[in-house]
Structures are given as structure tokens and as C-alpha cells.
Amino acid sequence: MYVDSHAHIDSAEFDSDRAQVLERARAAGVVAVLTVGTGDPLSGALERAIELAEREEMVYASVGVHPHDARLFSEAAAERLKDLVQHPKVVALGEIGLDYHYDNSPRQQQQLAFAAQLKLARAAGKPVIVHSRAADEDTISILRRELSPDLGGVMHCFTGSAWAAEEALALGLMISFAGILTFKRADELRSIARRVPLDRVLIETDSPYLAPVPHRGQRNEPAYVVEVARSLAEIHGMSREEIGRHTTENFARLFRVGSIKTLLP
Ligand SMILES: [Zn+2]
Ligand SMILES: [Zn+2]
């Protein structure tokens, strides 16, 4: 049993075959998918993620203003998020954070939007999904100021340094690995993954991006999370199923999704 803790299956890339994609996920043993709503918060994009979660029992949603879109973060956006995050199938606020690799929004605006949304999450009582790329130091320092340790969250698609992993764990966050873990040249990431305790790790696809080996270069989909589990299993010298069980339990605990717990053997 597996959970894809971060995917974008509400996105247009899946408009033509979303039902089959979910069917293949189920057939691969995936019991839940968290679809992360992104885009202009006032455009209806976040509502699309929620509507998908309403239609499909196995799908959960999160909402947030991605660091790429930080320039769209406004008072009106904050008000909208405040409403949407209360929906029963919205299990987290995110993805939020900093992306200094693409710099699609000015860094100062990224920092403001990140800090403001951490405050929103705290007020709403929801954990956070953090996106950090080439921004470890600023991400950690803003988290130190604004993260609610009781609610926690996850560093998604982790590609940071060993230092960032240690700091994130010390802050009470979980660490989620994506398909990059399966790439040939990811030895350093694998050595970081080895040191993340089994009760603090999640797996994800970040579909439709970053398909794992052996699907590299294709459109990614939740069924392929099994390949991430396989890679993590090799790292820890245990079975894929055991990794599935640990990461599913962690998902249920972090996002307070009781229904998955009841599915556990
Ligand atoms: Zn991301
Ligand atoms: Zn994402």
C-alpha cells in the first residue's frame, strides 16, 4: 500500500485520461493521492483541485500560493486561502516556500508570501507543504520564525543539503522524496535519505513532472510512486512493502487522514 503525497493531477496534463491514471494508481497499490493546487489563487485553479478531491474518494487536496506565483499573493488571495483551507478534504496549506532556481517571482515577494502563508496555516490549524529550491538557508530561517511545531509539515521533493535535512527534521518536519531519488547520479541525495528516520519520511511523484527511472522523460503519474518506494527500500535494505507501510502511516499522521489508517493491515 502506497500514498503519493504530492502530485498535480488536477492539472491540464491529465484532462484527457484522469480516470485511467487513477485506476492505474489503484492497480499499483496506491491508496491515496494528495493533489497540490497551484496557480493564480483568484483564477479558480485552487477550486479545481478541491473539486477533484470531492469527486474522488482517494484524492486529497492542498491549496497555497506557489513561490513561482508569489507576486500574485495579495490580501484578497489570503482571504480566499483562508476559506478554501477549511474544506474537509483540504489537508494542508501548500505548496509554499522559496524557489531561487527559477526566480519566477522577486525573492522578497517570495519571502513575504511564504511567511504570511505559514501564519495562515497556523491560524487554520493545518500542516504545510514546503517547496524549497536553491534557497535552503532562507527557507530554514523563515521556518524557524513562523512554523507551528504542533502542526508540522513536509519538505517536499527534497533536493537540499544534508544541513537542510537536519534542520528540517529538528523543526519537526517530514522529508519527502520524489523520482530524483531513482536517478543514477543522485548518490548524495540517497545518502541523505538513508539518514532520515523511517517515521519522518514520505514519498511522492510530483506528477506530471520528474518521472522516476524507468519512466524518466515521460509524463509522470501517481502509479510510479512505487518506483520511489523501491529506491528508498534499497537504501534502507528492506522491502518495498515495508516502505509503503511506513510512508502511508506517516502520511495519515501528518495530514490527519484517519481513513487511511483504517486501511492498514
Ligand atoms: Zn514543488
Ligand atoms: Zn508540486
Provide the descriptors you would attach to this structure in a database record.
17% strand, eight-stranded parallel beta sheet, binds zinc ion, 10 helices, TIM Barrel, 265 residues, 8 strands
Describe the structure in your own words.
There is one protein chain. Helices cover 41% and strands 17% of the residues. It has 265 residues and is an alpha/beta fold. The chain is globular and about 45 Å long. The mean pLDDT is 96. One zinc ion (ZN) is lined by residues 95, 131, 156-157. The site of one zinc ion has 4 residues, from loops.
Low-confidence stretches: none
**Order of adjacent strands in the largest pleated sheet:** 1-2-3-4-5-6-7-8
The DSSP helix count reads 10
What sort of overall outline do the alpha carbons produce when their principal axes are compared? globular
Distance linking N and C termini: 9 Å
CATH class: Alpha Beta
Structural class: alpha/beta
- Mean model confidence by pLDDT: 96
